[in-house]
Specification:
By secondary structure, the chain is of the alpha/beta class. 32% of the residues lie in helices and 21% in strands. It has 15 helices and 16 strands. This is DUF362 domain-containing protein.
Length: 437
């Protein structure tokens, strides 16, 4: 999409501040204990072994395995190990995209999304079946239809695979995990759209567990493999869960995941700079639990962290132009705005049901412009007082550049290291020129 932007000098001239007025920048990192699965393949096989329903399948039975659109570091390896283990039992596994409306809600787009994540039939050694076809398998307590993918219904068994973690839209006993994979993933675009509409009426915390129960009863779901990540987005634990125990065990896995959740080491900022947002980083592009903004229908906002302005510099290539979540920011770089595919973004928004998250924020022509304008948009007495933090993305909020007022606050923390300081560096085009190395 073509945009015309005001001249950078003219826009910055509307503000009394200059980049020379910014406080010094400090490179800091937060250290945390990161329990890590030593052997992902072995842990995945153990998880599959913990699902007793698999033992009841006859040789030659087909097993559909879900694959979502999130950037889960170990997902390709988990799927590869799961496929190999099922094949060793004489079963015939296949993988199918389970991602609602992502990938533009087309079979080709969803297959491409998986390929971007390193999930291909060549790597997995099995077929990838991509279709948006669904059938109604039941109705909920309010007579809304519940859908499941035809690919899943045609299989002899379905194995859910997903990360278990806090959701970006709501709080509940089950949030982002195996139950949501059943409801949204198996439901494809039609089921996801219908579920989100139901959730707008009753709340996700009610709808997802109820619909997951219906799908477990009415489809060949036999269990799931749940991945819990540490704060470094590495696999901390991998669990196999029987379908019969799913609604009891997943809340326990969610509580366990909260112990490892990555978060900013600071709760009060004038400006948060995020280098990249994207669908493989979070379903909302920016993890709402990290930035402290929800902006979803009927959901309460959180108290911490408190961030006055958020500026996002780019959209990841893996998002394929889907910029859902840009409405959570206050400012975005013109390069991000120029790469937005509004059709894909709006399809995702229609499915999720919250248009606020697709609103185009204030577009700036350079990083320097965003920094300078923030002095007029945050209520600080002067640019030198700005409490700034810069992160690469919301998956990695423990590595930061921060301004001097924030560095002074963090200096006495045992879990934070300060590696050095320098002025905020911008190139001749006004773009940040500060390495993460």
């Amino acid at each position: 999409m073509e945009f015309e932007f005001p001249d950078r000098d003219r826009l910055e001239a509307a503000n009394d501040a200059d980049v020379a007025d910014l406080p010094r920048a400090y490179r800091v990192s937060r250290t945390r204990d990161h329990p890590t699965v030593p052997d992902v393949t072995e842990a995945s096989i153990d998880a599959v072994t913990d699902i007793p329903e698999l033992d009841d399948l006859e040789p030659g039975s087909t097993v559909g395995i879900t694959a979502g659109s999130r950037g889960i570091e170990v997902l390709p390896e988990v799927l590869e190990a799961t496929v190999a283990e099922l094949q060793s039992r004489g079963l015939e596994p296949f993988v199918f995209p389970a991602m609602g409306s992502h990938g533009g809600a087309t079979p080709e787009g969803q297959r491409e999304t998986l390929a971007t994540l390193g999930i291909t039939s060549e790597r997995l050694g099995c077929e990838i079946r991509s279709s948006l076809a669904v059938e109604q398998v039941g109705t909920d307590s309010t007579d809304r239809p519940v859908y499941a993918a035809e690919d899943a219904l045609e299989a002899d068994a379905v194995l859910l695979v997903n990360r278990v973690k806090l959701h970006t839209d709501f709080e509940g006993d089950v949030e982002s995990g195996l139950c949501k994979m059943a409801v949204v993933g198996l439901g494809k675009q039609r089921g996801a759209d219908n579920m989100h509409n139901a959730a707008l009426e009753r709340g996700f915390h009610e709808v997802i567990p109820e619909w997951a129960g219906i799908l477990i009863e009415e489809t060949p779901i036999i269990g799931g493999v749940g991945i819990i990540e540490n704060a470094a987005e590495q696999a901390a634990e991998i669990h196999g869960v029987s379908a019969a125990d799913l609604l009891v065990e997943e809340p326990r896995l969610l509580e366990r995941s909260k112990e490892f959740f990555p978060e900013l080491p600071v709760d009060d900022l004038d400006l948060l700079v995020v280098d990249a947002m994207g669908k493989e980083i979070s379903g909302t592009g920016l993890d709402t639990n990290v930035i402290g903004r929800v902006r979803f229908h009927n959901q309460a906002e959180v108290d911490e962290p408190s961030i006055t302005r958020i500026y996002v510099r780019s959209l990841t290539p893996a998002s394929h132009g889907n910029a859902l979540g840009m409405g959570l920011a206050d400012l975005v770089h013109q390069d991000l705005a120029s790469t937005v595919d509004f059709e894909d973004t709006y399809v995702n928004i229609v499915t999720s049901g919250e248009p606020n998250r697709a609103k185009l924020p204030f577009v700036v022509p350079s990083d320097a412009t965003a920094f300078v304008l923030s002095a007029s948009m945050t209520g600080v007495a002067g640019a030198g007082d700005l409490r700034i933090a810069r992160i690469e993305n919301t998956m990695e909020p423990g590595e930061l550049w921060v301004s001097e007022p924030v560095a002074e606050e963090l200096a006495d923390r045992d879990d934070v290291q300060i590696h050095g300081d320098e002025p905020w560096q911008f190139d001749e085009h006004g773009e940040l020129a500060m390495s993460w190395e």
